[in-house]
Amino acid sequence: DLHPGDFVVYGSAQTTTSSTVLLLDMSWSMSWEGRFAAAKKVALAMESLIRARYPRDYFAIVGFFTRAVELKLRDLPEASWNMGDPFTNLQDGLRLAADLLARHPSNNQHIIVITDGQPTAYFLRGRLYCEWPLSFGGISMRAAQETLREVERVTRRGIVINTFMLPGSSRRVSPRRLHGEEAEAGVTRTSLGEESLAPRRSSGT
Questions:
Q1: Strand 68-71 relative to strand 127-130, pairing
Q2: What are the sequence ranges of the domains in the chain?
Q3: Which residues are CB-neighbours of 141 under 8 A, at least 6 positions away?
Q4: Which of 63, 88, 112, 194 is most buried by a 10 A CB count?
Q5: Nearest CA to 47 among 31, 67, 71?
Q6: Tens-place pLDDT, residues 123-149
């Protein structure tokens, strides 16, 4: 089980507050191999860490499936993956997370994404589209492209995105695959289960 002590924190300055939104994948595939239970443990441990060590920081959780919704902390222990809305709308999750961060401005703004794969749903001109990845190597191209556009919009605002892939995730969006780029500015990726389980707070922040 994960506990606040499992996270490594650098720096002890308490004068600068941070704003963080955790995006929790609640799509159908998260029901496989205990992925959602593992993701929820990370979310609960992170919330406990921030509440105990950084009480001035803003922390919120957004669940994303076919759409994105804000999850109240009191509801997180009972939250579950959503079988009725099985798609993965990371674009909408990023949009909602950025909106929440805009209401809680700070010098350090972060979005943490915990997911097992790639986007399969997106909004375009106000209309919701859902796609199963049946071609191009299992990638929903339009969903991936619209999600990357949202990533670019979010990172232009100075928000740092950290993405954690759950073990056993076989399909994931790769900017290199789509655009031939190494990575977008302000975006990092890590696999859960490795030594680094969360973004490490840098010195002086």
A1: unpaired
A2: 15-191
A3: none
A4: 88
A5: 71
A6: 999 999 998 776 555 678 899 999 999
Query: 105-128, pLDDT tens digit by residue?
Result: 999 999 999 888 789 999 999 999
CA 146 to CA 94: how far, in whole Å? 11
> Residue 24 in contact with residue 113, Cβ under 8 Å?
no
Retrieve residue 81's tokens.
């993956």
The pLDDT assigned to 181 comes to: 36
State if pTM tops 0.70.
Answer: yes
Cβ neighbours of residue 27 closer than 8 Å, sequence gap 6 or more:
64, 65, 66, 81, 82, 85, 86, 87, 88, 116, 117, 120
* CA dihedral sign of residues 24, 26, 28, 34: positive
Return the structure tokens found at 196: 């680094």
**Position 16: which residue type?**
T
- Sole residue written with tokens 């308490």: 14
CA distance 6 to 29: 26
Please give the CATH topology (third level) of the domain spanning 15-191.
Rossmann fold (3.40.50)
DSSP 3-state assignment of 172? coil
196, 205 in Cβ contact below 8 A?
no
**Number of residues that this document lists for the chain:** 205
